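REQUEST FORM: STRUCTURE PREDICTION
Request ID: SP-0412
Submitted by: Lab K.M.
Chain count: 1
Length (residues): 134
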Amino acid sequence: MDDGVYVGSAGEDAAVDQGWLLGHFKERGDPRHSEAVEVKWGVHPRGERRARWVRGEVRTALLVLVSGHFRMEFPTRSVLLEEQGAYVVWGPGVDHSWVAEEDSVVMTLRWPSVPGYVAAPEERRAAPDGARGE
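STATUS: Completed
RESULT:
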């Protein structure tokens, strides 16, 4: 990594920071450190859901479906992503939550990367069958 290049596996690296691969929370000097954007690789078993809504969001976000069926919930609508590459974008001030309707993999980008913002572990709820999420 001395040359400013990092090569990794999203699946393996995601386990270190609750799925987050890039953002302000990586050490300065690490090519994955960014104050501009955050990137997450999310692997969610069927039935896993966010236990509490995100309220007062200050960032813009893009969530892209890699596989599965993944539902994003917003105050005024529900969006089901069913085809690989389907995506949804929401901006600052948009409250949201989610549920994995099937085993799903999603990639999320958020910007800017906001120091001090951390989702509490209890904000995710395991699938009813006991499958464990990130």
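NOTES: The longest strand covers residues 60-67.
Reviewed by: T.R.
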